[in-house]
Amino acid sequence: MAPDPRGPLRVALACEDQAQRSLLVHLTRNVVEREARERGAHWLTDLLDEQLAFCGLRDHEGTPAHLRCYLLQNITEDFQALRIQGRPVRLNALRDGRPAGAETQRWRRLVLLFEVQPVPPDVLIVALDTDGYPERRAELEAAMPSPPPLCILLATPHPEAEAWFIAGFEPRDPREQARLEAFKRDPARKLNFVPTEEPHRLTSHPNEAPTDAKRVLRLLMFGDATSRPPDLDELPALSERLLSNLELLSRRGEASHLTDFLHQLRKRLVPLLLPGPPHA
């Protein structure tokens, strides 16, 4: 099959931070590349950068790769500035005959911001940490329009993005093995579960807790006990290492919603690049 003459598949990323952006980019590319290899579509793996483009709401030429996303914190401000035929947009306060709550209105605004662009994206991926509240995923799902105006995929790391990175951790040397073992025997860090096997049991608050996902990720990777998200310059290497083993991620990621996101990519995004049944 030849490359698509219409240009690359445009995948818009709407997320909360750079850790989520890195998750979305690397997981999407890894799933597409694997499916292409299994189908023998080597042209796609060779030309992936020409066939798959990540974007934000209004990317400009020369926008650095790490800025090709839309930050959810800007929804309210951007929606207030939105004009259609010169007029501000007013959403119906009702949904299915009932008052639409604040979260529903928020996600309706987000989808509309992308839908009315002069050239809407082909796919919109929305990422939202549950922060330990699984109902946040249900609220996001319930707020999505039906039928959706775009192909919309939902990524809801539970409890937060760092849990998805941790799911891919396998020790590479004795020091890393010792760090992982410390969660079982060190009284200061002792957990009643293995964080790499059950990342959904980690927490996003309070930050002082030994179960804090950000702290656990830094301890495993760097031996650093601070609770802070990965630095921007750390994310490429972290993503390359921790997000490549899709079988491992799928096995460990059921309760953290990672397995579901990988399924969405394979069943809904991949066919836009490779029509036909997925590889068995």
Task: Give an overview of the whole structure.
The chain has 280 residues and is of the alpha/beta class. It has two domains: 9-158 and 257-273, no CATH class; 168-253, no CATH class. It is built from twelve helices and nine strands. The protein has helices at residues 18-39, 42-46, 48-51, 75-81, 102-115, 135-143, 161-167, 174-185, 213-222, 235-242, 246-252, 258-273; strands at residues 9-15, 52-55, 70-71, 83-84, 87-88, 94-95, 98-99, 123-127, 151-155. Strands 1, 2, 3, 8 and 9 form a five-stranded parallel sheet that branches. The protein has a two-stranded antiparallel sheet with strand order 4-5. Helix 1 crosses helix 12, helix 7 (161-167) runs parallel beside helix 9 and helix 11 (246-252) packs across helix 12 (258-273).
List keywords for this structure.
5-stranded parallel sheet; two-stranded antiparallel ribbon; 280 residues; 9 strands; 12 helices; single chain; alpha/beta
Query: What is the CA-atom radius of gyration, in angstroms?
Result: 20 Å
Number of strands: 9
Q: First CA to last CA: what distance? A: 20 Å
What is the H/E order?
EHHHEEHEEEEHEHEHHHHHH
Helix coverage percent of residues?
A: 40-55%
Number of domains: 2
Tally of contiguous helical segments? 12
Spans where pLDDT lies below 50 across 5 or more residues: none
Which secondary-structure class do the elements indicate? alpha/beta
Shape annotation: globular
User: How large is the share of residues in beta strands?
Assistant: 5-15%
- Indicate the mean pLDDT: 90
Main sheet record: 5 strands, parallel
